[in-house]
Task: structure prediction
Amino acid sequence: MSALTAAQRLSDLARLRRVRDRIDREYEQPLDVEALARGANMSAGHLSRQFRQAYGESPYSYLMTRRIERAMALLRRGDLGVTEVCFAVGCSSLGTFSTRFTELVGMAPSVYRRQAADAAAGLPSCVAKQVTRPVRKRQAPQAEPARPAEPAQRARPA
Result:
């Protein structure tokens, strides 16, 4: 790899890190890939490809994961309804929010709100956040495929 190519790669990684940090800070703002790309002086397509290569998911998926993580924390508190939480984390559609929440968490936000109040009772918020962090299906640990059972050993004639 030439020095120019290596320098460009490091520059791209620094810009991608700034994009990720911006998503982490401004998740509740209306962000889209085009706006993020403009802020990083990249095209939307290039940003999406490079972000996925560096972090394993698209900028939009990363944004939605951050929003759902924050929504989980707000729902655990129990003082806001699902609709209020949806808008508080930057989602503009309750249907999209509920669908993405269910995909990432495995249950509807209203069900999570009811169950989380009981499950997280007494846990420090930092522990509750770690324990309840959403895991994308493709990131979930894969169970090893079941191996066929060993054939029963034949009894030897005596």
In short: The two ends are 71 Å apart (CA to CA). Helices lie at 3-26, 33-39, 44-55, 59-77, 82-88, 94-105, 109-119, 125-131.
